[in-house]
Design goal:
- It holds the Pfam family TPR_11.
- TPR repeats lie at residues 4-33, 34-67, 68-101, 102-135, 136-169, 170-203.
- There is one protein chain.
- The chain is an all-alpha fold.
- It is 79% helix and 0% strand.
Length: 218
């Protein structure tokens, strides 16, 4: 097992100190190998030293401008620091360099959501759920973007998919309920909102929506 593989093993075990040591040795043995810099950066990010991690990702990109994983990891750091423009640029670079993972599409979409560009986010979130059908958060965020675009039926499909994956996802019931109310399906809407409240009794919006719909019904 080479030093990079050993370091990854230590990371999977949560042994950050030994992981860092292994990656440091990998860099010493192969200073032109971008993989070791990316891995070391990931350790630094995992222990909260994001700004130092960025320097290792930058070094990896300096060594190999096509190192898609370095752009993706740098994007994660920027995203965690709420620097959404910078994160978007990194995730776009990762995609251009060949990274076609559901996570990269999801985070690129979420950057656009955070930047108030939900319509532009929609195709990336759609691609994310196509690549990973079990990602409940991706389905939920995709549903919100569809709702924003007034594609109600398609949004409901995504919220129902969330419920199928995770039957305790209170917000999915809430948005399904409010979407059904918009379509005039009053009884089913109330049922969904009551389920949201059953799962989360403090869900104020669900409680308010149920009260309004019941008043309108009567």
């Amino acid at each position: 097992m080479d030093k990079n593989q050993l370091g990854v093993k230590y990371m999977q075990e949560g042994n950050w100190e030994d992981a860092a040591k292994a990656f440091n040795e990998a860099i010493s043995e192969s200073p032109q190998d971008p993989v070791a810099y990316i891995n070391f950066g990931n350790v630094l990010s995992a222990v909260g030293d994001d700004e130092k991690a960025l320097k290792f990702y930058e070094k990896a990109i300096e060594l190999d401008e096509n190192a898609a994983a370095a752009y993706y990891s740098a994007g994660n750091v920027h995203y965690s620091q709420q620097r959404y423009d910078e994160a978007k640029n990194m995730f776009e670079k990762a995609m251009q360099k060949g990274l076609q993972s559901s996570d990269n599409y999801f985070l690129l979409g979420m950057c656009l959501v955070q930047l108030g560009q939900g319509r532009l986010a929609t195709p990336y979130l759609q691609r994310s759920v196509e690549l990973n059908e079990s990602d409940v958060e991706a389905h939920f965020q995709f549903g919100l973007c569809l709702l924003q675009a007034e594609l109600i039926d398609h949004a409901i499909e995504q919220f129902e998919k969330c419920i199928e994956i995770d039957s305790n996802y209170a917000n999915a019931y809430y948005f399904t309920g409010t979407s059904l109310a918009y379509k005039g399906s009053t009884e089913k809407s109330i049922s969904m909102l009551e389920k949201a409240l059953e799962l989360d009794p403090d869900h104020m919006l669900a409680g308010q929506a149920r009260s309004i719909i019941e008043q309108l019904k009567n």
